[in-house]
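Usage

Read records sequentially. Each one opens with the input sequence:
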Amino acid sequence: MIPLRDTAKSRTIPFVNYALIAACGLVFFYELTLGPHLDGLVRTYGVNPVRVATTLFHGQFSLKATIPLFTSMFLHGGWMHLIGNMLYLYVFGDNVEDRLGHVGYLFFYLLAGTGAGLTQVYFQQDSSIPLIGASGAIAGVLGAYFLLFPRARVLTVIPLFVFFPVVEVSAFFFLGFWFILQFLQGTMSSMAGVTGEVAWWAHAGGFLVGAVLLPLFMLMNLLRYERQRR
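and closes with the structure output:
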């Protein structure tokens, strides 16, 4: 399913969401200039599951291995990878930023992306294929949106072979179906021992991390508001 827009209205201009989209776009255009050197960039700044697992799960800490948990969020493997991720971020990110505030949203996004990356690493500890993309962090945004705006409506394109009907569905259904699909795909890939190009567990993990982080960030916003009133 491809989201086009949602019905939840944002009360503020989502500066951070726009900045994240712009940053991913600028980094991708830089990738296009690298030619044969692109592979080196991906291997340096993408998440290497074996390296991260050794660092975090086996007590051999390396800053070089953990920094890609952040930098990988701004790298993409192609036009469709970039456009698909940025479309989801554009549709759902503004409302989450509106609720969390600009600074809070930035930290939320980065933490969700880190948690998503660690989830994928946990399930693919023997893989040396670099992981890149903003989808894990965006999955965290989807998890937050799922809790905040379950009754919102999402205008959606449903690809059905040669037909592309446009329907309006609830965010609860859209995002719930999306999460179940990621979880099932991750489960099947783990059972089959397949290390594919799609980081299914990062998607499912990011969604859950976002859902868990949301109440904590909302509580921090409430406490900050109470302090300002005194």
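Summary fields computed downstream for this record:
- The two ends are 47 Å apart (CA to CA).
- The mean pLDDT is 90.
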